[in-house]
Amino acid sequence: MKLDGIAAFKFLFDGQPKHFLAVIRAHFAYYGWLSSTLAKRKKMKEHPNFKFSMRNVYNGNMVFEHFLRKKNRYSDLSETSFLDQ
């Protein structure tokens, strides 16, 4: 969210108000859906067969990997960087 804010103001200062407004609209849409999403998660957790798992969650910085290390596919990422619990 912080990077979105930085990008939005960069668009504004670079004279691209349409891009600035697109980022702002996306933020409002996200916050509009947030309560619904949290309610769905709560309902899922109450299900008797629900089991929380962090398996296969990437434990690194995807932005760094993509832009600095030029890794464009998940298969390019190191398997040791994924959580396996």
Task: Please characterize this protein's 3D structure.
By secondary structure, this protein is mainly α. The protein is 55% helix and 0% strand. The protein has 3 helices and no strands. The protein has helices at 2-13, 17-45, 62-67. The two termini are 28 Å apart. The mean pLDDT is 89.
Main beta sheet strand tally, sense and closure: none
Count of runs of 4 or more consecutive helical residues: 3
Q: Which geometry do the CA atoms define?
A: flat
Strand content: under 5%
Q: In sequence order, what are the helices and strands, one letter per element?
A: HHH
Distance between the termini: 28 Å
Tell me, rounded to a whole number, the average pLDDT: 89
Output the radius of gyration: 18 Å
Question: pLDDT under 50 segments (min length 5)?
Answer: none
Report the strand count.
0
